[in-house]
Design brief:
This protein is an alpha+beta fold. The protein is built from 64 helices and 40 strands. Strands 1, 2, 3, 4, 5 and 6 form a 6-stranded antiparallel sheet that branches. Strands 34-35-40-39-38-37 form a 6-stranded antiparallel barrel. α12 crosses α13 (about 600-605), α15 runs antiparallel to α16 (about 630-650) and α36 (about 1040-1055) runs parallel beside α38 (about 1080-1100).
Length: about 1950
């Protein structure tokens, strides 16, 4: 078999086709993947895909296209870099990264970026193809690469990827270049990206589309120009377009005639008062409306004008066309001013030329150099565009620019009538003529866009002898034709007669050049109009050229011409680079002709305009050096001064572009070989005079020209040496040395008095560095470096900080460091000391930091990485010694300086910080072992070393800050971190050696640890968040720096020894943060430190409470920031070592003596982490849902019960409160805030500022909380709860005599009563939800909850909502309990079905006369227990009578807390399952139906019903069913002998069933009587039918006459509950029977709050005593006619038979009809829940003493015998018997009626009392703690009773009893801390009408009360006294 052979050259390839990898060891490949090949064997390769290097395998060779590659680190860890263009490599990797992110954009629905990126990716691929083909020219390749990199940068920026540093389009390797250079590249790219540099040159593109007007018909001429309204003058030439008769361009095929570019606009021209003005001239008849006459003479006539501001174009969208309104003059004479009038809005002088006239123009401002525009807008220039220049030169005059343009503006004319009665129609024709009088062809240009003509005709103003034209024409006459040329203006009158002739009547002329060679001066000229009526007279120009042309230069005696009225005014302006109007300039250039004028001409040179001098720069310089050569003695000084003037002229920004012209002149044309002597002599003369001179202005001008003077000196000497073979070299050197000695002497002078010397020194220093390059042409490098060192060294050192010389010194140093001289290593070693000395001085004083940073950057960028020779090492040593310390201090100072508010200053500070940082990093990178050793040895004392370490650690912390660099500078951050960790490794050694044992310094060590922790936690080092390719690159280059730093922390910690105690608990938080980083190796290194901390703390204090407290506090804050994961929890908890050799923390702790407390801590931390992880995951979701709320509740409970962290507990209370408010769960929000409210007392204790609460007293905060809670209860329509708080707050106001607030509170309370009675409230549904499977969050996993639905939410909607919240969950389609496989499944299962609430507040619900609005609240509030019934058949089913085998499986769920509460759902604490036998089921069904009948009959009697239909239907249903076998089926099933024989134990139940059947018959009879009274006439037949059927039913039941016990009591049940003996159901049906004892501490004992209010912060319910609630557990039938809810689709297979089970509440919920409500009302009233200890008080009872469920039928059995002892009101009883299914005996006894009724809603009428709920036993006062009312003034216990009570020894006398009876507290009132209440009279609305006409209904049969239910006295359960709280001042 062949072996696998390592490949030599086949190392890198691209996959050509996808490979599935189905062979053994096959590696799946996708097309386009890049692979690295390791081995080869028989047509197969072995290797890996670069994007996933961990997966290795084999793949076929023919699937791979091999590429050349360069191999690094050959061997096991080799890396492969393709040897292709770096731009191609970058493109490939970038496109791969983009590809994945591009798909994510689609998923996130970011369509816009998705499509833009797609286009850019395709564009890059296309460009990549072009580059790969390799057929591009060099220039084209450059353009393509530029295009590619621009696109790559754009995409990276859009996707938030890193900024790539590039040089010449290629990525740079940060290791290969200096860090200062890297920073500069990054900064340059960042600046380029952020702020484009402002452009100083702008251009306006104009494209005329058309003129839209209804009254055209003539050709038009359109003129555009730019006009400055501030100066009232045009800024540009005119652009001229001809339009045809339709208003469209006349030459549409020639685009250059429609488009123009107004070029060279300065930034100052983009103002609001600069306008584009458009003049439109029509060509045609004199009058626009004239008929077409026979003559074809055309006149130019004004048409209209349009104006638009240039500033408007800056904001407008450039792509849109502009439609400009066209205005016309009201009077023609104003035409020349029309644009001004429009701008100034002088409306009286113009109007719209037509409502639909408009000029369609495209206008666009373009910015930048004209050459740049040619590249960017290539189409524009290739298609053709005319250029319209500015009038005059642009802001910057370029050498080589050739212009010779004469602009003439025809301003106005004054003409006589010429013998005519009306004024003339004057037309002026302009000609340019040469010397011979020949017309210059094509040199009269009206504007750009059209070629020049031979002549120009002005427009004609009708009958106007003083026309104003203001028309501009350009005469671009060549220079050689300028001399002798002139311009002639001919004036003609245009007749409007038939002939239409134009008659000449005069002319004017103006010559263009004067005899002395000067041109026509700029300005306005008044020209003489010479009479001439014959064209022939103008043929010979020689005749009229002798005449005067201008009135200004007439001889004084020629008064005749001067007096003539006729004149023409023109304005001329010459823009020429060759001609001058300056005579002095001409005199200087012609100096040889007039030698006597030389001195005068040289003096006048300074007065000549600069533009004139630069026009003739070379000629002027030749003249000066010619004079110097010939007369140096005489004119040397003046020539020198002139030369200085010209040199300084070129410093002006307008002429600075002429510097290259002068440089070229010096190099190529300068010939003054002897000039250097005179120049040196004069320069030295000036320098020597500096100290004595009083005025320095001229000397400063001389020194400003130093650079060029030296250039002339050096060039002159070189020419001389060349000509003479190097003669006089020594003399020259001596002169130069003397000159430098003078300079050094002058520089060394210190300022005295005023500052002229300092300023002069500054001027010289600014120019001095420019001399270095020139000196190097004649001197060696070392000589020049010595000159410079000595010159700079001579500067005075002690000068004031504000001295201008200081800044200039630095500027000079900067130029020195940037110069070619400093670049040379030979000269650098000479210059470095002086440079560092000056630099250090400035940095120490924090002056000119920008410049200092720049100098340092330049110095360090010259230190190359490969420079290992001695000199480079010495340079580093020098720099470290001089500036390292001051550099650290500067960075600290700059970084911590408060930033100014101005936005402009921030970038500068940022630049400085960034540059200093890059310098520091560069310096540290160049430092080696030797440098560190020398650095540390320099510190003479420990204090200095300590300060240095503190400084450098602090600076490193600053460097790590996220804001240090822009967020996309990952490259720079990684380099920084690499240098930091290297430096820290060097310095940690110094820390160990110098600051341990007796020299221990906490501050340095603390700074070190803080730095290390911050370093590890940087976001740029969290490799897990990066893409695979980026992670791979970083790991290859730097490794995982976090692990390196972690190991260093561990090593340093181990060295601390006993000093570790100094860092406990301070470092717990930071180290914990490090362990939260998801890096296994790092965690393994760091976790043992915690064990160490616990160990040391245990040794010190015997426990590690401090460690525990800090650990828990920090965990919460860190994990809420998003740190930590599931693996992290395991790291603490798991016993098996997860990673590497380190065991988990738990494993280590188990070996210790203190393992128990340690393991307990780990368990607590683990559980906290579970909850925190769940909380964090839930909070990431968008909307507020049950998961978030449930998770917060879980965490809140944990902080209270297990950790006793009150502050955290309160924080999470408020987080939960905010969640509820956001979800509009106002009731839940109130309950939540109550948790905090209950922690506070009504005391004046001051509380500190906390969360959003200000500093205030405890009373004020509690008041604020009360008011907030009341407001939320109001919004949640939970007014009963709000009333209780109103009362408590009112009591407080009353005790403080704050009657104003008391009044408000009482009014609010009253409004709540009104709302209860007037507003409708919906009853919510309740749903049981089971969460099964391991994929659910910890707080839900394998638990079941009951949830309160939203308004109108039915089962299907709730089910859908839950599935939306848990999209991965599977809905279970049955209601059975799941098995273990479901519990352990790696999935989510949801089991949902509706459940029926079992209310606690039975007394309210069973009272008659209590309005439905009140009852509805108690049916669905304060509910602890819920029921779900499932019918089934046991044994064989009897097809004839299914009732025989129909059983019901009843599940009762008890919650940990009542609903509603602090959450919409609570966990099920206990589930009880009982089976109800067929007989018991039958009893329940009949009992329920009897109750329904009684209720409806009562409603009918009291006229609560609007109509009688419900009663009719109910009677019909019962009687009809009974006739058709309903009750008969029960008889057949249970009354037969077989059943009685087989079930002897059911005897009582059978008797009970029989009683109920007889009772039902009696009720039916009574009901029919009532029905007869109220039945409408149309329903009489139905009533008759019902009566007949009833008799049939009686006979079928065998009832002839009702038994005695039914007939015995002739009692009305109008007010009382029409039922008796509720306790007949056996206790097996209601296992938690009996009463609960609930004691009250606070009036706000909300059941929902109970779980959260123990002082030990324990969730164990307390066992405080309470009242006995004499209530039957089977009393659920009060609310349900049928026992079982439907379970929708989830439990449809268990739907019950209609006779047995009821459905879940139907959509009739909320209906005011009682009958409908009862049809679907809730089940199983439960006695009030036990009240736990109040918040923050320890529980004095054993938490195991939970109330035990009790069987039914003991405390709650009806008491019919007055002799049987009953607990008195206010004497609560409690049963403690264990649960057992004991049968309750029944006996049909008669009862005597006591003489009083304690029910608040009943009258004291004997006839009405017998059937009261007090006697019947069905009445329960067990309302919840939110709805109790104290009627006792002396007792703190509740004053409610389950049965009527007789006075006994413990109670007060009968008068007391009667007094109590008269008090009628509302059913939802509660006891309020011994606050006496006034007696409340019975509301009239609740009183019962006494008159009853119907026959009496028998009472229910009563059962014998069990004797073993002795009530407990309240004193047997003493109320625990509250222990004072130790609460943090919150």
């Amino acid at each position: 078999m062949n072996m696998w052979i390592p490949t030599e050259h086949e190392k890198y390839g691209v996959v050509l086709a996808s490979f599935r990898g189905t062979v053994q060891h096959g590696l799946p490949l996708e097309i386009g993947d890049t692979v690295q090949i390791l081995e080869k064997c028989e047509g197969w390769y072995r290797g890996f895909v670069l994007k996933n290097p961990n997966a290795r395998g084999i793949f076929p060779c023919n699937y791979i296209h091999l590429k050349n590659a360069h191999i690094k680190n050959k061997g096991q860890f080799e890396t492969v870099v393709p040897t292709e263009d770096s731009v191609i490599t970058e493109m490939t990797s970038t496109l791969r990264d983009w590809g994945a992110m591009w798909k994510q954009l689609f998923v996130k629905n970011e369509g816009d970026l998705f499509h833009r990126l797609w286009h850019v990716m395709n564009e890059i691929l296309d460009l990549r193809r072009q580059v790969l083909v390799g057929h591009l020219t060099h220039d084209r390749m450059r353009d393509v690469k530029q295009h590619i990199t621009a696109r790559l940068d754009w995409g990276n920026e859009q996707l938030g990827l890193d900024l790539v540093p590039r040089r010449e389009f290629s990525m740079v390797d940060p290791d290969e270049i200096s860090i200062t250079e890297l920073y500069r590249l990054m900064e340059h790219r960042h600046r380029k990206k952020e702020t484009p540099t402002p452009v100083s040159t702008h251009h306006l593109f104009v494209h005329l589309k058309s003129l839209m007007s209804s009254n055209l018909g003539e050709e038009l001429e359109v003129f555009f120009f730019i006009y400055d309204s501030r100066e009232n003058k045009p800024l540009s030439e005119r652009f001229f377009v001809k339009l045809n008769k339709n208003g469209l361009p006349k030459f549409p095929e020639k685009t250059e005639r429609q488009c123009t570019l107004f070029v060279d606009l300065g930034s100052g021209d983009l103002r609001k008062d600069v306008y584009i003005v458009v003049h439109i001239i029509r060509i045609g008849r004199m009058g626009a409306g004239e008929k077409k006459n026979t003559c074809n003479v055309q006149y130019r006539r004004p048409f209209g004008c349009a104006v638009v501001s240039i500033a408007d174009l800056l904001t407008a969208d450039s792509k849109d066309d502009h439609l400009l309104k066209v205005y016309a003059c009201n009077t023609e004479s104003d035409w020349s001013q029309i644009h001004d009038n429009i701008i100034k809005k002088v409306n009286s002088r113009y109007n719209l030329s037509g409502s639909n006239t408009g000029l369609a123009v495209a206008l666009q401002l373009l910015h930048g150099d004209i050459e740049q525009l040619r590249r960017e807008y290539m189409v524009l220039f290739t298609r053709g565009v005319s250029i319209t220049k500015k009038l005059g030169f642009s802001d910057v005059i370029m050498p080589g620019e050739m212009r010779n343009d004469l602009y003439i503006t025809l301003e106005k004319g004054e003409f006589e009538k010429g013998g005519k009665s009306v004024a003339r129609n004057v037309e002026v024709t302009v000609y340019a003529l040469d010397t011979d009088g020949q017309i210059l062809k094509g040199f009269v240009a009206v504007g750009s866009g059209e070629p020049g003509g031979d002549e120009y005709h002005t427009f004609v103003l009708y009958h106007n002898n003083s026309p104003r034209w203001a028309e501009l024409i350009k005469l671009p006459i060549p220079v050689d034709m300028f001399r002798g040329s002139h311009v002639r203006f001919e004036f003609r009158h245009c007749s409007t007669k038939d002939k239409g002739e134009k008659k000449l009547f005069g002319f004017s002329f103006v010559p263009l050049m004067q005899e002395d060679g000067r041109t026509l001066p700029d300005g306005t000229h008044e020209l003489i109009v010479h009479k001439c009526e014959e064209n022939a007279n103008l043929q010979d120009c020689a005749r009229y050229l002798k005449l005067p042309f201008s009135k200004s230069n007439l001889p004084g005696n020629n008064q005749t011409v001067k007096g003539t009225k006729e004149s023409l005014w023109i304005t001329s302006f010459l823009c020429s680079t060759k001609l001058t109007q300056n005579g002095d300039m001409l005199d200087l250039l012609k100096w040889r002709a007039h030698p006597e004028r030389i001195s005068d001409s040289l003096s006048k040179l300074k007065e000549i305009d600069g533009s004139e001098i630069v026009k003739f720069l070379q000629d002027t310089l030749d003249t000066l050096f010619g004079i110097l050569d010939e007369s140096s003695q005489k004119y040397a000084l003046k020539v020198f001064d002139c030369l200085v003037h010209i040199i300084n002229l070129l410093q002006d920004s307008k002429f600075e572009h002429f510097k290259p012209v002068m440089d070229t002149y010096i190099e190529s044309h300068f010939a003054g070989a002897l000039s250097y002597r005179d120049l040196i002599k004069v320069l030295k003369w000036y320098v020597d005079r500096i100290i004595e001179a009083d005025r320095h202005e001229h000397i400063q001008q001389v020194l400003k020209a130093t650079e060029y003077i030296f250039k002339y000196i050096i060039q002159s000497r070189r020419l001389f040496a060349l000509a003479t073979g190097g003669q006089s070299e020594e003399e020259f050197r001596c002169c130069m040395l003397e000159l430098f000695m003078s300079i050094r002497f002058f520089l060394s002078q210190e300022n005295k008095g005023s500052r002229p010397i300092t300023q002069t020194q500054a001027v010289f220093l600014q120019q001095f560095p420019a001399v270095y390059g020139e000196l190097l042409k004649l001197f060696t490098v070392r000589e020049v470096a010595t000159f410079v060192r000595e010159t700079l060294g001579s500067l005075p050192t002690a000068s004031q900080a504000d001295c201008p010389l200081e800044a200039v010194k630095l500027h000079c140093i900067t130029k020195t460091v940037e110069s070619q001289l400093y670049t040379n290593p030979e000269s650098r070693c000479i210059l470095l000391p002086v440079v560092l000395r000056l630099l250090q001085a400035h940095m120490q004083e924090q002056r000119d930091l920008v410049m200092c940073a720049h100098i340092l950057t330049c110095m360090l960028s010259l230190l190359k990485k490969e420079d290992t020779e001695q000199t480079a090492s010495e340079e580093v040593d020098l720099i470290v010694e001089s500036v390292l310390g001051v550099l650290l201090r500067t960075i600290l100072e700059v970084a911590n300086r408060p930033q100014p508010a101005g936005p402009t200053l921030r970038p500068q500070v940022q630049d400085v910080t960034g540059e200093f940082v890059s310098c520091l990093l560069a310096l540290l990178r160049h430092m080696k072992d030797r440098h560190y050793q020398q650095l540390l040895q320099r510190f003479t004392s420990k204090d200095d070393l300590r300060d240095f370490l503190l400084h450098i650690f602090t600076v490193f912390r600053i460097l790590i800050r996220p804001e240090m660099f822009p967020k996309d500078w990952t490259v720079m951050r990684l380099v920084t971190n690499n240098i930091i960790i290297t430096t820290v490794l060097y310095l940690s050694d110094a820390l160990r050696k110098n600051f341990l044992s007796d020299k221990f310094d906490y501050k340095v060590w603390d700074s070190y640890f803080c730095l290390s922790v911050i370093f590890i936690n940087q976001s740029c080092l969290q490799l897990e968040t990066f893409s695979a390719s980026k992670r791979k690159k970083i790991l290859e280059k730097y490794g995982d720096m976090r692990v390196m730093m972690g190991c260093e922390i561990f090593s340093m910690w181990q060295n601390l020894g006993e000093h570790k105690l100094n860092f406990i608990p301070a470092m717990i938080g930071p180290f914990l943060e490090v362990t939260l980083v998801p890096q296994p190796d790092l965690r393994n290194v760091m976790i043992p430190i915690f064990h160490d901390m616990m160990d040391w703390e245990q040794r010190r204090s015997g426990n590690f409470k401090q460690v525990e407290a800090k650990l828990i506090d920090k965990l919460d804050s860190l994990m809420s920031e998003g740190k930590g994961d599931e693996t992290y929890r395991e790291l603490f908890n798991s016993i098996i070592p997860l990673f590497g050799p380190y065991p988990s923390l738990l494993k280590k702790i188990e070996r210790e003596t203190w393992r128990e407390s340690g393991i307990s801590l780990i368990a607590t931390v683990t559980r906290l982490m579970e909850r925190l992880l769940d909380y964090r995951d839930c909070m990431k979701l968008g909307e507020v849902d049950g998961k978030k709320i449930g998770c917060t509740v879980s965490l809140l409970n944990f902080y209270k019960t297990e950790l006793n962290k009150e502050e955290m507990y309160i924080r999470y209370i408020h987080k939960l409160y905010d969640l509820h408010l956001k979800a509009q769960n106002y009731t839940e929000a109130s309950y939540t805030l109550l948790l905090y409210d209950e922690l506070l007392e009504w005391s004046e204790r001051p509380l500190r500022e906390f969360l959003s609460y200000p500093m205030q007293s405890e009373w004020q905060r509690k008041e604020y909380l009360h008011l907030t809670i009341i407001q939320n209860f109001d919004r949640g329509k939970c007014w009963e709860n709000g009333i209780i708080l109103c009362r408590e707050l009112a009591d407080q106001y009353e005790s403080y005599y704050d009657y104003r607030n008391l009044s408000k509170m009482r009014m609010m309370e009253a409004s709540f009563y009104d709302k209860i009675m007037d507003q409708q409230r919906l009853e919510p549904e309740f749903f049981r939800v089971g969460f099964y499977g391991k994929k659910f969050p910890f707080f839900l996993r394998n638990k079941e909850f009951v949830c309160r639905g939203h308004d109108y939410e039915r089962l299907e909607a709730f089910q859908q909502r839950m599935l939306n919240e848990f999209p991965h969950a599977i809905a279970m389609q049955h209601a059975n309990q799941p098995d273990q496989t479901i519990y352990q499944a790696e999935a989510q299962y949801l089991q949902i079905y509706a459940v029926t609430p079992i209310p606690d507040s039975q007394d309210v619900l069973q009272r008659d006369g209590v309005p439905d609005n009140i009852k509805s609240f108690y049916k669905v509030n304060h509910i602890w227990r819920f029921r779900y019934d499932r019918p089934f058949h046991k044994g064989t089913k009897d097809k004839e009578n299914e009732f025989k085998s129909l059983w019901v499986e009843r599940t009762t769920l008890t919650l940990v807390q009542s609903l509603p509460g602090i959450s919409r759902w609570f966990e099920v604490e206990r589930r009880e399952l009982v089976e109800v036998s067929p007989l018991e089921n039958a009893i329940e069904v009949i009992e329920n139906k009897n109750l329904q009948l009684r209720t409806l009959i009562t409603q009918c009697q009291t006229r609560q019903m609007q109509n009688i239909n419900p009663l009719t239907m109910c009677l019909n249903g019962v009687i009809d069913a009974a006739v058709n076998g309903g009750l008969a089926r029960y008889q057949e099933a249970f009354f037969v002998k077989d059943y009685i024989m087989n079930h002897p134990e059911d005897g009582d139940k059978i008797g009970r069933l029989r009683e109920l059947m007889f009772e039902q018959a009696h009720i039916l009879e009574f009901g029919l009587t009532v029905h007869e009274k109220f039945v409408p006439q149309d329903m009489r037949p139905l009533h008759k039918k019902l009566v007949d059927q009833f008799h049939l039913m009686k006979s079928s039941l065998g009832i002839q006459e009702f038994p005695a016990y039914v007939r015995a009591s002739p009692i009305h049940f109008t007010n009382g509950s029409p039922r008796a003996g509720r306790n007949s159901a056996p206790n097996i049906m209601n296992p938690e029977g009996g009463a609960r004892v609930v004691s009250r501490r606070s009036p706000l004992s909300y059941p929902a709050v109970n779980r959260y209010s123990s002082s030990s912060l324990s969730s164990q319910a307390s066992n405080e005593v309470s009242n006995i609630t004499g209530q039957s557990e089977s009393s659920d039938e009060v609310f349900n006619m049928q026992p079982s809810p439907s379970t929708s689709s989830l439990s449809s297979n268990h739907s019950a038979s209609p006779n047995v089970t009821s459905s879940a509440p139907s959509s009739a919920r909320g209906s005011p009809q009682l009958s409908d409500k009862h049809k679907h009302s809730r089940e199983n009233c439960l006695s009030p829940r036990e009240r736990p200890c109040s918040a923050i008080y320890p529980n004095p009872l054993d938490p195991t003493q939970r109330p035990v469920p009790h069987p039914a039928g003991d405390a709650s059995m009806p008491r019919s015998d007055p002799n049987i002892s009953t607990p008195d009101k206010g004497s609560p009883a409690k049963t403690t018997r264990s649960q057992s299914p004991v049968m309750t005996s029944r006996s049909p006894q008669k009862t005597s009626v006591p003489p009083f009724t304690p029910s608040p809603t009943e009258c004291q009428t004997t006839g009405l009392v017998s059937n009261s709920p007090v006697l019947s036993g069905s009445y329960s006062s067990g309302i919840s703690s939110l709805s109790r009312c104290s009627v006792s003034e002396a007792s703190g216990t509740e004053n409610t009773s389950t049965d009527h009570a007789l006075p006994n020894s413990a109670s007060s006398g009968s008068d007391e009893l009667i007094r109590r009876e008269n008090k009628t507290p509302p059913p939802y009132s509660i006891h309020e801390r011994n606050n006496p209440r006034r007696q409340v009279p019975l509301p009239p609305s609740l009183s019962i009408p006494p008159s009853i006409d119907a026959p009496p209904i028998p009472p229910k049969p009563h059962q014998i009360r069990r004797q073993d239910t002795e009530p407990r006295r309240p004193d047997q359960f003493p109320r625990p006294r509250p222990i004072p709280r130790k609460v943090s001042q919150l």
